[in-house]
Specification:
There is one protein chain. With 136 residues, the protein is an alpha+beta fold. The relative contact order is 0.20. It has one domain. The chain has a 5-stranded antiparallel sheet, with no helix packed on it. Strands 6-8-9 form a 3-stranded antiparallel sheet, with no helix packed on it. The longest helix has 15 residues. Helix content is 19%, strand content 32%. It is globular.
Length: 136
């Protein structure tokens, strides 16, 4: 009986464990775009907020990753918390800031069908990782 109890407890512990999400699976086209944006740049320390950003400079890489270009020398990459179903393709990511011009970790973006004008999903932003060209 004791052996069965130990097996049950061990099984329950294994069932409760979670594993970290691996890197996003990208199409070849998405991976090429990601590589092109980060070519020659090195990652910096993640930041919680983008002080200023322009939605027109946002690039959707895949359903989990967006990038914000700041000129040709810096790109901020954001891996959405939990992914972002329907991001890309015929849909757009719409962000709204309340009370400031910052976009921050935890902010929610809506995935919108621009043709029919309805929301098809939502996403939560994670940290923003800056990639910059190294100084010579």
């Amino acid at each position: 009986m004791r052996r069965i109890s130990l097996l049950f407890i061990g099984g329950a512990l294994v069932a409760c464990t979670t594993t970290a999400a691996g890197p996003p699976v990208r199409t070849v086209k998405a991976q090429k775009e990601y590589d092109r944006l980060l070519a020659g740049k090195v990652a910096g320390a993640p930041v919680s907020c983008l002080q200023t950003y322009n939605q027109n400079d946002m690039v959707v890489i895949d359903e989990s990753t967006v990038a914000f270009r700041q000129g040709s020398s810096r790109v901020y990459v954001n891996h959405m918390q939990g992914g972002c179903t329907n991001l890309g393709g015929p849909y757009a990511l719409v962000t709204k800031t309340l009370g400031s011009a910052q976009l921050c970790r935890g902010d929610i973006g809506q995935v919108v069908d621009l043709h029919n004008h309805f929301t098809v999903g939502s996403c939560v932003f994670g940290d923003f990782v800056p990639y910059s060209k190294p100084r010579a």
